[in-house]
Amino acid sequence: MTGRRLATGGTIDRARPIAFHFDGQAYRGFAGDTLASALLGAGVALVGRSFKYHRPRGILSAGPEEPNALVELRDGARREPNTRATTVELHDGLVATSQNRWPSLRHDVMAVNGLLSPIFTAGFYYKTFMWPAAFWEKVYEPLIRRAAGLGRAAAVADPDHYEKATAFCDVLVIGAGPAGLDAALVAARAGDRVILAEQDFVLGGRLLSERGRDPIAELGDLPNLRVMTRTTVTGVYDGGTYAAIERVADHLAIPGQHQPRQRLWRLVARRAVLAAGAIERPLAFGDNDRPGVMLAGAVRTYVNRFGVAPGSRAVVFANNDDGARTVADLHAAGIEVAALVDPRPVPSAATIAAAQAANARLAAGVSIQRARGRLGVRDVELSDGTTIACDLVAMSGGWNPTLHLTSHLGGKPRWDEKIASFVPGGLPPGMTVVGAAAGDFGSGYEIAPLWRVRGTRGKSFVDFQNDVTVDDVALAAREGFRAVEHLKRYTTLGMATDQGKTSNVTGLAIMAELTGRGIPATGTTTFRPPFTPAAIGAFAGHHRGRDFRPTRRTPMHGWAAEQGAVFVETGLWLRAQYFLRPGESDWLTATNREVRAVREAVGLCDVTTLGKIDIQGADAAEFLDRVYVNGWKTLPVGRCRYGLMLREDGFAFDDGTTARLGPEHFLMTTTTANAGTVWRHLEFCRKVLWPDLDVQMTSVTEQWAQVALAGPRAPDVLARLTDVSLPHMGLAETTIMDGIEARLFRLSFSGERAYEIAVPARHGEALVRRLMAEGDAFGITPYGLEAIGLLRLEKGHVVGSELNGQTTAGDLGLARMMSAKKDFIGRVMAGRPALVDPERPVLVGLKPREPGAILAGGAHLLPQGAVATAANDQGYVTSVGYSPQLGSWIALGLLARGRERLGETVRAYDPVRGRDTPVEVVSPVFYDPEGSRLHG
Amino acid sequence: MDEPGIAIVTRDRFLASIEARRGQAGAVAATIAAAYGIDLPSAGRWAGGADIAFAWAGPGEWSAIADRPIARDLAGRLAGQAAVTDQSDGWHLTEVSGLRVRDTLAKMLPIDLDPAALPPGAVALTRAGHIDLRLRHLSAGVYELAVFRSLGADFAGWLEASAAEFR
């Protein structure tokens, strides 16, 4: 085939040549070209190799349905595989490479697969790679994976960025062809807010492709009409929501500064008008995949829109009246039409007239049996025994309405005999379908279905992208894979990037023919989003890498970073895990130092992230009584109390201290991890369960920065800031540091004498710097989460590892907190037999029998001498840490009847890390069991 | 000078949350009207001015936004009628404006920003991705965005990235 640029015609700008490269060779096209039209205009017919047989392939279509002309667009980190050349807007510096061939496009050694094609039939993998079974994972699958696939994705991170955005409208018009333009104008002139989305880079749709159609009417400057070109609506979702991909910068080699490559739009529309047009069907004859065999409508597009002659001598093969139009357009462009092949015994008057006018042979009642020529079509053999030389075959098997979006919410397409295709059935709420998408092909459209040419030699392709032939469909029918969904999976018909846009209907029609069931009974596969391939990056938008989810930082974050903090994510928060001092390189050294400082001097820790909920109202105490297991009405103003909440199902939920600021005013704290969950739970309780209670709630987590000061010298440091002295579990509202409002609490999580100081968040950093300065003389040391974890572990205080949703208050040794004098959430369910079963694993301390042995969380607890089976499992290790005070690793765990087994030795069995450690069951309070240090 | 594509200014304001006690919403409204001459707004609205404004925050709930410390004053006036909580340090406030402000915000917010749907005087309690956000349409094309303080830096980074192409 010898494509070339016509001297005139088309909407390309011949004054603006554009240089590009394909497979390393320099070419020139024009502004307004696609990569496909530029390649055809430059005489390039061979652009790819097929998936399975590596057959030489050319350009089949002129739109997003393209199954053949898939290329790697761009290079380096921006390389994008499987890009359809028919949708790539030509731009300066464009670089594209053919794919799925080696060593070159013209000489592909993998084409040997074509010679072996009798064994590469449908179901080949399933039949061939079955024995021995053990070979699948190690041998077969890696081999198949290497041979399969099309283009190669870039192996490095995408350097471009993507965005997501939302837009609202009254009417969303999908497609800017004649029907879509009409709909958009009418709706906009009626005053509706309209979005017109068009996947192409210019408006017009088929208007651009058909000769003699008026140029696009000026849309004018309607402020309520938003035109979005390069924007493909890819999915329909509930509530009038549509997804669209805007290719903002895909037509540039490198996006402009701050320009995203693509933008994923969430379009919310009261109504939608689907005007997506139609997609033409190929005809199934022998070797119908040779470069130069194209869809007739695409041939017209290249001639009329791009001013390109895809060949110099054409044969038109059509079972409908589009054949006549194609003949006329080719003739008008000065391209010789050798023949019009029409399988209908009696072609329409228009067909006869067109052939005559073009001086083309009209072969009526005849089909093309086979196209010949390896890297490009050379001639065609007709069923009447004649052979016609040509370098272009324009084929049309009829048109399929582009109805994919109508079935995204479950609408079933309906078969329409008149146009021999599926038309939209049930529609998504608010959607209207117009124009060719609705099956309206105009009055002159007559078709006689021809699903396959019989008695051919060579391969008759149905699905070009997946190398599925008529024979494969027949094989599937013979082997019982007759349902359309089975047909798809067994043969791969309709899979991969084009999702069968040119092949589905033909494939299932052939199946219907072979099984005699008829097309409506055979049905069609389900269309799902996205309509065309979408970059994963667009779905992530801004939210990738560190921005994957938002990060919460405390007011003391900058200070902590200065102090060498290594941060860890706890929920969305970044918290200091430990602080590396100069010369320290590992977490354990730093943590041991921090723990010793708290035990021996004084430590300082940022506890801002704990959830803080301000609770007020006449019924505030009653409310707390109902949500906590313990009682609150007796708590004096100015005091704090530890509280435990259960879930409705009776399992432990969350814990924390709650302070009484006034008779009707409490301040609750929650764990950092559960702050949001507890808030929602309490909101549900007060607004849904007990709307009669007078309770007001506000989250003050963000309002207050809070610092814990712990250790024997903590009172000395605090005394430098205030002369307020507090009893254990006391609280005071005061001012510090020249009038800054402050709340002081005497609380301890570490077992040491400890305080928490809260100030309005803007003063958090000043507070911590002041405490560091005042504490310097006492050896004040910042400590992080690792130290907190160890300090509480030594005291047997539970955290999320123990409050893990599977433990009861009883399991955790907190059964005595459960008040018998009142009702509370979870009380009844906590009394279920399984939750009070004396065999339940309960909280214990664990110490290795051998000094220096390391313990790990998750190890299972087994009786000594017992086989490591699930039946012998008696519990597991929940938390571990190295105690510098005890010079040993220690652990908390849940052990069946554990409280009765103090002193017993059990096995901590850890098959993951290959450890089996004898441990002694001990009290969960390892350090200062009398609590003397709290008061010291 | 031409109006910029986008202008972003961080604001320091004094905030307080107000939640009426059970059955006291009317009394709260009367107290506020008497003290500040402002009718407490209904759902999706705010009322007041630059010195003090009240934004609807839920049934029987409002946020006060003032140019001076306000929580103590409100708590005194509304004693027995409402729970008042100082939130001056709890929020990160940003004011955005400019010719492309709505194009910028469309990248972050899932709501209809058209002035017909969200006119000046409107309040939206919405989300920017996973970040809870309160938007006030202050005057034509000028919006106040409030997010939790801890998310302020993260939010500002996203806002900057979204606005970059319009600068």
Description:
The complex is a heterodimer of chains A (936) and B (167). With 936 residues, chain A is α+β, with helices and mostly antiparallel strands. Chain A is built from 22 helices and 49 strands. Among the domains of chain A are: 4-130, 2Fe-2S iron-sulphur cluster binding domain, sarcosine oxidase, alpha subunit, N-terminal domain (Ubiquitin-like (UB roll), Roll), CATH 3.10.20; 557-609 and 703-782, Gyrase A, domain 2, CATH 3.30.1360; 612-699, 2-Layer Sandwich (Alpha-Beta Plaits), CATH 3.30.70; 834-935, Aminomethyltransferase beta-barrel domains (Elongation Factor Tu (Ef-tu), domain 3), CATH 2.40.30. In chain A, the strands form 13 sheets. In chain A, strands 9, 10, 11, 12, 13, 14 and 28 form a 7-stranded mixed beta sheet that branches. The longest helix of chain A is centred in the C-terminal third of the chain and has 15 residues, at 675-689. The model of chain A has no long low-confidence stretch (mean pLDDT 94). With 167 residues, chain B is of the alpha+beta class. The model of chain B has no long low-confidence stretch (mean pLDDT 96). The longest helix of chain B has 12 residues, at 25-36. Chain B has 4 helices and 10 strands, in the order ββαβββαββαβββα. Chain B starts with 6 loop residues before the first strand and ends with a helix. The interface between A and B is large, with 48 and 39 residues.
